[in-house]
Amino acid sequence: MSAPLVDISSVSHRFGQHTVLKDVSLKIEPGSYTILLGPSGSGKTTLLSILGGFVTPSEGKVFIRGEDCTSVPPAKRPTTTVFQDYALFPHMSVGANVGFGLRMQGVDGATRAAKAREALALVGLAAAFDKKPHQLSGGQRQRVALARALVIEPAVLLLDEPLGALDLKLRRQMQDELKAIQKRVGTAFIHVTHDQEEAMALADHCVVMNDGRIEDEGPPERVYARPATRFSATFMGESTILAGTVTEATDRTSTVATPVGAVSLPGALPVGSAVALAIRPEHLVLGTAAGGVRLGTAGVSDVVFQGSFKRVLAASIEDPSVQFIAKLPATATVQPGDTVAISCDTDRIILLAD
């Protein structure tokens, strides 16, 4: 197996008495699109700053291409960073902005211009070479910042919430363009966001962070379908969480007592152990699921039409502290005040590690 492009080894960091990263280890493979996902204060931006050389960790090491870059300044490591505010020079042309990093490297003017044009063509802005940043839209300025970062051919491109300032439609368009550009250039992208939809749209490697630690990591499909922890299950998409206790177990199945009834799960679990079960909204059924498990009845409290589906909130009749979150077809006739049966296919129930 080839060595990772980036190897973050046991990194911790403190600002004064406040610890923002706690023994974080992470490997990034060449050509991957990695998303650091988490709420504000989870440590994801600090970790990106350490990768970019803007912050030196209190403990631990950062290796890029097998070399110790822990204390190497930003200009001397094989990374570039695209910030949320783009940081374009307003007095320079777009071409000069894109070529600025090459200018700092001592590249001659003709070569800078040629490479800047190539980079602008890569992001679909070949015609903008002589324009000024203020003449461009927000999405176009974002692509100029991307071209400026890519033109120096970094081993790793770091993106700090680069789409945060864009409206929803433009953000989704730029998600498609970012992924397409990353595939074309083959550079490893490491992208910070708190937007779970953005993470699932872009990543082939998703890293969920919380309170300075990595909660879960892997392909986004696995992290969503089989989250490792309760936090991951509730941050990477929504989930209904059921607390339970294992009451019976055989070699192949275990029975878990929950506030809404007994649930049978595959696999042997220790009798008496406390567990947490998660169910994604699209896997809850209002009514009876063929071959599924009944989860009692619930009173519908809210129905929100969201275009392609309806998001339904319902409180369990058996235990009102249990709030079911269901995602139903847009044509579903459910409405607030209805009392409905709740069920789920047993195979769709997620056993959480915590």
Tell me about this structure.
Residues 6-236 form the ABC transporter domain. The structure is a single chain. The protein has 354 residues and is α+β, with helices and mostly antiparallel strands. The chain has 2 domains: 6-235, P-loop containing nucleotide triphosphate hydrolases (Rossmann fold, 3-Layer(aba) Sandwich); 240-352, Beta Barrel (OB fold (Dihydrolipoamide Acetyltransferase, E2P)), CATH 2.40.50. It contains 9 helices and 20 strands. It has helices at residues 44-52, 94-98, 100-104, 109-122, 138-150, 168-185, 196-202, 220-225, 230-235, and strands spanning 6-15, 18-28, 33-37, 59-64, 67-68, 79-82, 156-160, 188-193, 205-210, 213-218, 240-249, 253-258, 261-266, 274-279, 284-286, 293-305, 309-316, 323-329, 339-344, 350-352. A hairpin with a 2-residue loop joins strand 9 (205-210) and strand 10. Helix 4 packs across helix 5 (138-150). It is elongated.
Would you summarize the structure shown here?
The chain has 354 residues and is α+β, with helices and mostly antiparallel strands. It is 23% helix and 36% strand.
